[in-house]
Amino acid sequence: MPEPIDTTNAAPAGTVDSIKAAGTIKAVPIRHYGRWVSAVLVLGALALLVHAFARGRVDWGTVPAYFFDDLILRGVGNTLLLTVAAMLLGVVLGLVLAVMRLSSNPVTNSVAWGYIWFFRGTPVYVQLLVWFNLGLVFQYVDLGPVYRDQWSDFMTPFLAALLGLGLNEAAYMAEICRAGLQAVDEGQTEAAHALGMSRGKTLRRIVVPQAMRVIVPPTGNEVVNMLKTTSLVVAVQYDELLRSAQNVAQTSGATAEMLFLAAGWYLILTTVFSVGQYYLERRYARGSLRALPPTPWQKVRTALVSFRRPEVAR
């Protein structure tokens, strides 16, 4: 005998028909009035800031007039040269220090730790002044038959700036490289040794390429930071961007305007380095992501194509 059907929770007979007749449900989005209020407040604050700078006693026409001055361009070139040279010194020496820190040899491990402790514990400005005034300790540089000269002639402003920035950067790059090397699974090293690879070859072929995904992002930040830190080498009388702007300000009398000019050049250079960092990170992410995210140019191109060819509503 069939069981009786429970109809207590069943929908009324006309419910389905009424839902079909009503059509789709119209969703009303929630209005976020707080967002509009905060947007108006932020735009108002920006407008007041722009108005204050516009009414200030600053001759803004002087900035574009000296933007491509010969002294300014030479300062920009010296800044780029010092940034690249100091970063190369810092990256190479930092990688060596990172390997020394990971070594089981207590002597090399302790020396690397002491180097990092000293250069991270003292300000860059102090290190620059120390290098520039080491002539009080070393009167001559004597390398035998190769080179011999007085310290004041040997330690040029560029060399003092390079050593002060590069050796300090090596301490930070050592920790970045060490973190990247330790991020690689130890099984990779064991597998390479099982295939007969030496320790050095394993480091070059297996460990370092995989560690680059961890090393590249903070290294890009260090490059941008190095570009801005070059402004401190004005202490050793090296003609970088800030010192060149100050020299132009002394002859033109536009002190504040030349500072704004230097700030504009720093923004341009950091933007270029940031774009390069983005594409470098994208390159080293190819082995970890199946599909790389679109670049900003690809996003703009897709938006333009979709705007020109709107989808036809069905």
**N→C terminal distance:** 52 Å
Rg (C-alpha, Å): 31 Å
SSE order: HHHHHHEEHHHHHHH
Q: What's the total number of strands?
A: 2
The percentage of residues in β strands lies in under 5%
Are there runs of 5+ residues with pLDDT below 50, and where? Answer: 310-314
Shape: flat
Write the layout of secondary structure elements.
Blueprint: H1 15-22, H2 33-55, H3 62-66, H4 70-101, H5 106-121, H6 124-132, E1 140-142, E2 148-150, H7 151-154, H8 157-183, H9 186-194, H10 199-229, H11 241-252, H12 255-284, H13 296-308
Antiparallel strand pairs: 1-2
Can you walk me through this structure?
- The chain has 314 residues and is mostly helical.
- 70% of the residues lie in helices and 2% in strands.
- It contains 13 helices and two strands.
- The protein has helices spanning 15-22, 33-55, 62-66, 70-101, 106-121, 124-132, 151-154, 157-183, 186-194, 199-229, 241-252, 255-284, 296-308; strands spanning 140-142, 148-150.
- It has a two-stranded antiparallel sheet.
- A hairpin with a 5-residue loop joins strand 1 (140-142) and strand 2 (148-150).
- Helix 4 packs antiparallel against helix 11, helix 5 crosses helix 8 (157-183) and helix 6 crosses helix 8 (157-183).
- The longest helix has 32 residues, at 70-101.
